[in-house]
Amino acid sequence: MKTNDWLQFALFLGCLAVITKPVGLYLVRVLDPDGRTWLDQVVGPVERFVYRFLKIDPRREQGWKEYTFSMLAFSFAGVVFTYAILRLQGILPLNRQSLPGLSHHLAFNTAVSFTTNTNWQSYGGEGTMSYFSQVVGLAYHNFVSAAVGIGIAAAFVRAIARSSTKTLGNFWTDLVRITGYLLLPICLVLAIFLVTQGMIQNFDPYTKAITLEGAEQVIAQGPMASQVAIKMLGTNGGGFVNANAAHPFENPTPLSNFVQMLSIFAIGSGLTWYLGRMVKNQAHGWAVWSAMMALFIAGVLVCARFEAAGNPVHHGLGVAAVDGEARCLQGQREYADRDHQPRHQGEDQREWGSDGRSDLTASCKRCPTKDREPEWQRQQQNHEWRAEVKFSERKSVNAHGTDADRAIGAELDGRRARERNPDAAHDPPPAKRHKHEPPDTKRAECRTRDPGR
């Protein structure tokens, strides 16, 4: 990790520590049926209407058996509700792509997954779920499953804090107050912020675009900002698209990435402060917070080491990763296939091993050797590299507008130009000579496979 990485990590931990107490104080008020918040005038009337409609006494607490039964009954109803939506998706509204209903086993797997807040996905969201399924079926569970989890945590804290009790609170009161006073307001603000960062929020049909290869590419649309906001705040993880937060629509800027990460930890961090407040010993809450943070830091250090090493698959596509940054390889790509060894003209020969693989540090014999590599890198610009990359290899490269993709597009244009004028392809301009060569020595041209130019 570089200095910048450490600074970002320290900034994240600092911001998380700062918001822990405010979130914890707000949770104390939300999880108290008589607690007062700044949203009482807006959410209060809706809360009282829900209590009257469902005939709930918010001040009547439940024992652990009744609390557990209420939670299980509510979760079971949620599974049935979501299962029905996913199975009947083909005839329900907001299905702009005319996607069929899910199979019975996939619908059941998804319904149980989102109900339990585990959010396991064995499908690609943009190619499987309609807008109605995403909003009414899955986003609904992102809210209520998170609320159920927070309510159970609050009931557990009440059991610890009370010296002698037979009740743990009211499940329905916790569910309504957590959803109305905590999750919905924060998600509204977070979704608006994500839209300002470039995240999409619409119900438009999918966009069709033509790639450099001439193929048609379908670009997903949909109400992503509202889905991502609760996905992060409720620690759900079920993404709108298959790539999840790696997709530019779900995570458009570094700032959106930072805020999303912070929102994942916000409520869990605040619950530790809520624990300290309820047991009347704040040191207990900070002790739990410190233990959680120690595990998190250890995991980050392990993952960061391998994340910075890059993806070895990219090297096979002509892209090197240095500290997680993708860079196009300029004339230094390694190939195992002997059939793709570069063809040299004249007396200049590139150094190749006996196994048919190119030495990444090798150069033309007249070029500076390894100990003079910086000069060789400068001289390398004077070479006329001729790329002979297969069309299939170009097609396999990720087409999201990176430098490597733009280089491949330029190479494709050059290939088409050579096909239109075959004679020009075999009549390259005279190559420049090195400074150390005598004036009467004509340096031959090197030709090699290089997708980066």
Descriptive report:
The protein has 453 residues and is mainly alpha-helical. It has a domain at 32-252. Helix content is 53%, strand content 4%. The protein is built from 15 helices and 4 strands. The protein has helices at residues 3-30, 40-54, 64-87, 104-115, 125-128, 131-161, 171-196, 224-233, 254-278, 282-308, 312-315, 373-379, 391-396, 403-420, 422-425, and strands at 207-210, 216-219, 319-322, 325-328. The strands form 2 sheets. A two-stranded antiparallel ribbon has the order 1-2. The protein has a two-stranded antiparallel sheet with strand order 3-4. A hairpin with a 5-residue loop joins strand 1 (207-210) and strand 2 (216-219). The longest helix is centred in the first third of the chain and has 31 residues, at 131-161. The protein is globular and about 95 Å long. Residues 329-400 and 440-453 have low confidence and may be disordered.
Distinct helical segment count: 15
Distance between the termini: 30 Å
Structure class: mainly alpha
The low-confidence runs, each spanning 5 or more residues with pLDDT under 50, are 329-400, 440-453
As a percent range, the share of helical residues equals: 40-55%
How much of the sequence lies in strands comes to: under 5%
Rg value = 30 Å
Q: Major sheet: order of its strands?
A: 1-2
User: What do the pLDDT scores average to?
Assistant: 79
User: Shape, please?
Assistant: globular
**Most strands sheet:** 2 strands, antiparallel
* Total E-strand runs: 4
Secondary-structure element order, N to C:
HHHHHHHEEHHHHEEHHHH
